[in-house]
Amino acid sequence: MTPSSEEIARAAAVLREGGLVAFPTETVYGLGADGSSPAAVRRLFRVKGRPPDHPVILHAASVNHVPEWVGGMPGYSVSLAGECWPGPLTLVLPRSPRVPDEVTGGLDTVGIRVPAERTAQALLRAFGGAIAAPSANRFGGVSPTTADAVRAALGDDVEVVLDGGPSRLGVESTIVDCSGPAPSILRLGGLSRERIEEIIGHPIPVLDRGEIRAPGTLAKHYSPAARVVVVDDADLARRATEQTSGGARTGVIASKLPDDLPPGAVVLGAPADADDYARSLYQWLRDADVAQLDVVLAVTPAEVGIGAAVADRLRRAAGGGA
Ligand code: TXA
Ligand code: MG
Questions:
Q1: In the chain, how many domains are there?
Q2: What is the per-residue pLDDT for 322?
Q3: Residue 266: strand pairing partners
Q4: What is the Å distance from ligand 2's center to 142 Cα?
């Protein structure tokens, strides 16, 4: 599914006029505004419901556009950009004076990303500038991975929703802090830690939440209305029975479904592998809300590759608990 060139041109015009355009990327859908316009970015924050001191990511059409927005790139960040852009990677770099304070939340760094998805690329090229875009959900909610999910979350508050079909990866970009002498990972995501370490040539720390100010790193984030509980494989049937017999409407996400799962439990998803889990997780959490479930019991995938990002999001959806 690809929007027509007329739709892309109209969306670029809306951005130029200070309006908001939701657009697909290979990770999740973004809610875009002209990244050079303080007024447009302020409107973006109002619609998103995000506190003004939390930064948003700038999206650029290619690495050639990045120097306009940053105050220099350390050598290791040039390697990451060269290997991984366009792709599901956000680099946090010293900002250039061109970046409005509204984008950075007052920080002296800027998060920047070159997405690969073709509609995102077409929009960026038609617009010509950088697009500031958080995920196209209200603050704290589940990131949208379809155009319908964007419309359900934002309704008429967004002028244009470009529909590029379901997101290919389904979890947000990996964020790497490149503002100091050595990189660190601020958020696990669509690009694996293993791949980043291979490019850099040594282990890269993943910073604990609390060490940085970033909404995607709050202990409770990416949350549906249902209570999410992370459970062990071996405990799933028992925990589900406990919940259903207590009267809770219970959903389950696990790649291996036990034979003794109680009949009242709703199977939201049984992912075939970690890629499938990542692609579907947010849809399953939305399904849980549509079905008005009280609780979702989820077994995390093995924490390698994109599985590490899935496990991270489940723990945050669970509010840092269990
Ligand atoms: O995949 C993605 O990254 C999606 C798509 C739309 O590109 N965007 C996304 O944006 O997830 P958002 O706003 O939901 O999350 C962006 C994260 C936040 O945790 C934010 O705090 C962090 O990036 N961030 C942005 N600029 C930063 C900076 N200068 N320093 C530290 N963290 C930053
Ligand atoms: Mg978000």
A1: 2
A2: 37
A3: 251
A4: 8
